[in-house]
Amino acid sequence: MSRKRTPVVAGWFTGDGTDGEGEADFRLLGTRCSACASVFFPREDVFCRNPGCPGGELTEVPLSRRGRIWSYTDSRYRPPAPYVSDPELEWQPCTLIAVELEAERMVVLGQGAPGVALADLAVGMEVEAVPGVLNEDTETTWTTWHWRLTGTPGSAEAEADAKGAAGVVA
Amino acid sequence: MTADVAVLGAGMHPWGKWGRSFVEYGTAAAREALADAGVDWCDIGSIVGADTVRGGYPGYVAGATFAKALGWQGARVASVYAACASGAQAISTARAQILSGLADVVLVVGADAAPKGFFRPAGGDRPDDPDWLRFRVLGATNPAYFGLYARRRMAVHGDTLEDFAQVKVKNAAAGALNPLARYRKRVTAEEVAASAVVADPLRLLDICATSDGGAALVLSSVDFARRHGAPDPVRIRAVSTVTPRFPNTVLDLPDIATDSAASVAPPAEPFRASIARAAYEEAGIGPEDLSLAEVYDLSTALELQWYEDLGLCGEGEAAKLLGEGATAPGGRIPVNPSGGLASFGEAVPAQAIAQVCEVTWQLRGVAGERQVAGARVGMTANQGLFGHGSSVIAVR
Question: Domain Thiolase N-terminal: where (chain B) (predicted)?
Fold first, then answer.
């Protein structure tokens, strides 16, 4: 029986393959206030949190796909529940990357994509949001977002490079 | 400026991993503080407890729990919770009661019994709780956030791992002189560097442990103190319990993202600096007036951050201030003469109260081997999850 792909949190991203989309469609989803244009992630769906705003409609908005590393770290020890990991397997450290989105002027935390090593990272590098798998159980593949360096194999830029169409932004 | 309140008594149960109930630690600390004040428990008009989330229901109603343990005597009771800032909220509540005339003399108590390993969220499946979400979605423990802040300082200010290690060396040396500290052994920079990485770039000895402990204060009006035979008590002059301002652009625990500054310009000063400024304004003093500071060194790198947020030096200059010895014993502005969280580990609701206990002893001149000479003004600072500022200024 194949597992059902389900976002770990509903409504935080789209294009995770749940509906058969490709990776290029992946976007984090926030909301924007119609009155003051403030953007929220995680999404606010009821009230705008800008204290100077009279209050507007909050509508869904995709966040920038790319940003620059604000900071990064890793988890050398197994995090406690509700993080899910197989206690039978040796814990593999996982990178955590905080990414500054220029247009939204906000920082969003996420796990680094599998294969992103700490030594590959530096503050200021460009990364992009890509779909990822958080964990699987008997019936469900829980999907999430990951940050991946642009210009790495599999990224949109690397594919463009391969076609000789564009260089990596310095 | 508001009126002062007097610190009549201070007491602590030693920090450690004692394996007993938080009620025992808090009650022991309360008895110490009452004895130090020379006030009978039955003469206390109000008790304020700083809550712990780890003791079940008795932890959520800590004020009543400690009142019952000391023996019901009919005092007014309150219990407050603000994560790491709970102790400052308890002090603030007591102070407000004294300044408004609701109570003459108030007992403030906080205590915790911490589990081994990482702090973790409350149980259950709670996708509306940001604290649950950061663990479920990211596995982001508290040290992970400390690691992010530390790496950011290295990138922006050029701080080094050696700078961070020197904070531990300084605080461990102070803690070795403090009989109430959990860790009473000096530590070398080599030992810090040889300890295991927990959340890059921070190592085990860069990060504070979680501890059992209890702390208590007896606070009163200055008039009551005079009538009680304490003409020149340590006085609390300011308690800052401010929230952040929108948009908060520093990634705070337990958040997954910052506010967006796309439509509203960020405030001129970040949250932690605003906590200190509110305290300075209320006390009518500035950083140049401080004799010592007790700051929340959840990590070595965070202690450096506090130097800048308290205005002890300019932005990016904390490592230089440390390197000059200004924040060490005998320096211009000793920081964490108690040994700090590096030597105590964190007993969450007790910690902000313990900071004020240390400041009290320093201002009384009874801090023994770790005494800051001629201490007249002390400041504490910390920050609780979910937007809680915490800073106390005391004078003598």
Answer: 5-111
